[in-house]
Design goal:
The complex is a heterodimer of chains A (429) and B (385).
Chain A (H helix, E strand, L loop, with lengths): L1 E5 L2 E5 L1 H18 L1 H4 L3 E4 L6 H6 L3 E3 L1 H10 L3 H10 L8 H11 L15 E6 L3 H13 L4 E5 L10 H23 L5 H23 L14 H4 L1 H4 L6 H19 L5 E2 L2 E2 L5 E6 L7 H9 L3 E6 L19 H11 L6 H14 L4 E7 L3 H4 L2 H12 L3 E6 L9 H21 L1
Parallel strand pairs in A: 3-4, 3-5, 5-6, 9-10, 9-11, 11-12
Antiparallel strand pairs in A: 1-2, 7-8
Chain B lengths: L2 H13 L4 H10 L3 E4 L6 H6 L3 E4 L23 H10 L8 E5 L3 H13 L4 E5 L7 H22 L5 H27 L6 H10 L5 H15 L10 E6 L8 H9 L2 E5 L19 H11 L16 H9 L4 E7 L3 H16 L4 E6 L6 H18 L3
Parallel strand pairs in B: 1-2, 1-3, 3-4, 5-6, 5-7, 7-8
Classes of the chains: A alpha/beta (429), B alpha/beta (385).
């Protein structure tokens, strides 16, 4: 564990967090030098991303959602959002989109202070979120570069059908890959793709081990506040690369050590060993006040033992692994299986299973104003889960990166009442 | 019926949230009814199986939301809460199934809620292709074949090529008649008043297609002889209202504020195809091809073309309109994310516009009326530059 200074405050960080920070720094440096180094840049989305394919063409990915959440954590998103609203974007719509557009209008400066290069290709992986489609239509008007879409059908009936898989494979073969070949100026290197997919599967094995470790008491990880760091490399620019494998090996060793020594996860204020409540979380976190948000929970001795947000880029613990022997089919299955591409009954089933498997005391829904893909239907999910599991759920509202929609006092009040209720219920048993 | 009687009949259908027409139709035909959410579903297929397609566009401003608000946060649009209200209060019990077309994440998730709440009914999320090439065509065709198999089981009836072609023929005729209605309104907006056109279109959500076509034709034949004064109104196009609908009072208010509405995108599913679907040996394929190639431009369809939004400017010119009114439901992702792109096109083409948001139960009409009235005055004073 390391002690580092953030905004003048001493905070505790796990080794893996420090390693990840280094990886991200190097990635943005590569991006800053991409044009000089003759590398092509691909803008694409996190859920259902085709990272291995992008690297098979030796191109570099940029994820606009990640830029937005990093802007949120760096307290810049409020200005960016207002910039977009000034130019005609509605207050009602996704703040990731507005943050990205505002950031672009203000020079597209990334977290390392360097300009993020303009895209050579917009790769629209349209998975689990309608807004993605409009987002890239908007970007298409700003950047004069090719755009190619991969539509991933929604699991409306809670299952993946052959028709869905075939549709994705055909799009990959007939449209996505030819456009990537054209933009990169090279043919698809199938051997390289296979190598990348093999590497992905190994990293996925280690990540699954880490998720499952939360079944221990005390839980050695926080699968939500810590989990968003754990998914960083695999959901974004690193899956398929050796450094990604290194990261997850390192993370696993770190967690193994904590399991062996019955240690809890590291919070910004030290280890959370005295765990009073085990909670499952549905929905993304708030990024603008991330640390304040987290503190509300670790101050109460709450550890998050599973979360759905950490599955937006893949539900590996349900058995999926990238399969190098069937590259296109495996990418199709990956895209189809992401959390927000599952229908509501499947999402309820999954959370119910988490509550049982991780022996949770309850569950929390953080309902995000910006994100209809997650949020529409969550009040019904709350009731269904309470009926099914007999566990009480808490419901709070915030936003991804719009600081106007985060009220720490309201959330704190509500959560304190919720934990008092769980404590009272425990005492009465 | 005279014009007033036709419009009264349509208004009664509009206000009848208990769907008595549907119940009577089912009893008379000993058949089933399939509901669908906006914007578009291939009604021809439902019809071919002898079932009644029923458009569900929310509860409007007549429905008191008692339980629906408990299902949705305040920042979700109004339509799904009124649809849930209709469902849990039993008003949609006469529907044997509901189709949820891919339009946005809210309607998509509503399909899952429907599965959980009304698990005994047929529920289908219709994922349309956003890829309009061969891969999308084959996917959609497989989806339609699957839906047809479902309908075969639901209706207990097999459908022939001729059955499907007959339904295609009837809906083609219906769309052509709607086109006549829209052309007449554009040509003589003082005769075919917008609130009447709107009610006639809403009737198309409920009435069996031949009945609806007959009603439209009656209206078209009669309204041209009405003695109605031509007002000094400007000509506008209304866009953004393709899903959750404005209340009827707002439709009336727009017209009364000095705007003749010469085209719009509400109840768009009833005129989604821009030309006839051909009758053929493969009618399902014809429906699919028509979806891919011959449909209107709207926010729920992916469009990365260089001329995105030009359809609106073209419509302004072809309808001889003087401006555009962006009327979008609050929290409507498709309409509100689309709006800046369309506004850029209009600005570039020097076409004036104004924009407001509404909900299906909006009661504060006066503010909007003043806004569109001011817009009309400004165009009258300075004209479209």
């Amino acid at each position: 564990m390391e002690q580092v200074t953030v905004n003048g405050t001493e905070v505790q960080k796990e080794q893996s967090m420090v390693l990840q920070k280094k990886m991200i720094g190097e990635h943005f440096e590569k991006l800053a030098n991409a044009k000089r180094d003759g590398k092509k840049v691909v803008y694409t989305f996190v859920p259902g991303n085709l990272n291995e394919l992008i690297y098979a063409f030796d191109m570099i990915p940029v994820h606009p959602e990640i830029n937005a959440l990093q802007s949120g954590m760096r307290k810049k998103s409020g200005d960016y959002i207002q910039e977009a609203e000034k130019s005609g974007h509605s207050k009602d719509v996704c703040t990731y989109v507005k943050c990205d557009i505002g950031m672009m209008k203000k020079g597209n400066i990334g977290p390392t202070g360097e300009k993020i290069p303009e895209p050579d290709l917009l790769l629209l992986s349209y998975t689990g979120c309608f807004t993605f489609m409009k987002w890239f239509e908007l970007l298409k008007q700003e950047y004069k570069c090719p755009v190619v879409m991969l539509q991933v059908p929604y699991q409306g009936d809670g299952e993946i059908t052959d028709a869905m898989r075939d549709y994705i494979v055909r799009q990959l073969r007939e449209e996505v890959i030819p456009v990537m070949e054209q933009v990169s100026g090279r043919k698809l290197d199938e051997d390289k793709l296979k190598t990348l997919l093999e590497s992905s599967a190994r990293a996925e094995d280690d990540l699954v081990w880490v998720w499952n470790s939360a079944k221990n008491r005390p839980s050695p990880i926080d699968a939500y506040f810590g989990g968003v760091y754990y998914i960083g490399p695999i959901f974004t620019a690193f899956r398929g690369l050796p450094e990604c494998e290194d990261y997850y090996r390192s993370l696993r060793r770190e967690v193994e050590f904590r399991v062996a020594n019955k240690l809890g996860p590291t919070t910004p204020e030290g280890e959370l060993n005295d765990q009073k409540y085990r909670i499952v979380v549905e929905g993304p976190p708030n990024w603008t006040s991330f640390r304040e948000f987290w503190k509300i929970f670790y101050d109460e001795g709450v550890v998050m033992v599973a979360s759905t947000y950490s599955k937006v880029g893949g539900l590996y613990e349900q058995g999926f692994r990238h399969d190098p022997d069937h590259p296109l089919e495996t990418m199709a299955n990956y895209c189809l299986g992401c959390y927000t591409n599952r229908n509501l009954p499947s999402r309820v089933d999954l959370i119910g299973q988490y509550i049982e498997d991780y022996q949770a005391d309850g569950f929390l829904i953080n309902s995000i104003k910006s994100c209809n893909s997650f949020s529409a239907g969550q009040l019904m999910m709350l009731r269904k889960l309470e009926q099914r599991t007999g566990k009480a759920g808490a419901f709070i509202e915030s936003d991804l990166v719009d600081p106007r929609y985060f009220s720490a006092a309201n959330i704190k009040n509500r959560m304190e009442s919720y934990f008092q209720m769980i404590a009272a219920k425990r005492a009465s048993v | 019926m005279n014009v007033d009687e036709i419009i009264d009949y349509c208004e009664n259908l509009y206000n009848d949230l208990d769907l008595n027409y549907v119940k009577d139709w089912k009893a008379a035909h000993r058949s089933k009814a399939i509901g669908y959410l906006p914007v578009y579903v291939p009604r021809e297929i439902i019809h071919a199986y002898g079932m009644l397609p029923v458009g569900i566009m929310g509860g409007g401003d007549k429905l008191e939301i008692i339980r629906g608000d408990a299902y949705f946060q305040s920042y979700i649009c109004h339509l799904p809460r009124s649809v849930i209200e209709l469902g849990v209060s039993g008003k949609l019990d006469c529907l044997d199934g509901v189709l949820f077309p891919a339009i946005c994440d809210v309607v998509r998730n509503l399909s899952g809620m429907w599965k959980m709440e009304f698990g005994d009914k047929y529920v289908k999320y219709l994922d349309f292709p956003q890829n309009f090439a061969d891969a999308g065509r084959d996917f959609y065709l497989r989806e339609m074949r699957q839906m047809s198999e479902d309908f075969e089981e639901l209706s207990g009836r097999k459908v022939t090529t001729e059955d499907l072609n007959r339904s295609i023929r009837l809906y083609n005729e219906n769309r052509r008649t709607i086109q006549d209605l829209y052309d007449l309104r554009s040509e003589k907006p003082h005769l075919a008043l917008t609130f009447e056109v709107y009610l006639l279109m809403r009737a198309g959500n409920i009435l069996e297609v031949t009945e609806h076509t007959k009603l439209l034709k009656e209206y078209l034949a009669l309204v041209v002889d009405c003695d109605r004064p031509k007002l000094d109104n400007i000509r506008v196009i209304v866009t953004g209202a393709f899903c959750e609908q404005p209340p009827l009072s707002l439709v009336r208010a727009l017209e009364n504020s000095g705007c003749y509405i010469v085209d719009d995108d509400w109840i768009l599913g009833n005129r989604y195809q821009t030309c006839d679907i051909p009758e053929s040996d493969e009618p399902l394929r014809a429906i699919v091809d028509s979806y891919l190639s011959n449909t209107v431009s709207t926010a729920s369809r992916y469009d990365d073309s260089e001329d995105k939004g030009m359809h609106l400017a073209d419509m302004v010119r072809s309808r001889d309109a003087e401006g555009v009114v962006f009327a979008a439901p609050s929290f409507c992702d498709p309409a509100l994310l689309e709006r800046p792109m369309l506004q850029n096109v209009l600005s570039h083409e020097n076409i004036p516009y104004t924009a407001f948001k509404y909900a299906e139960n909006t009661g504060q009409i006066q503010v909007i009326k003043e806004q569109t009235g001011t817009f009309a005055d400004s165009i009258k004073l300075w004209g479209a530059e």
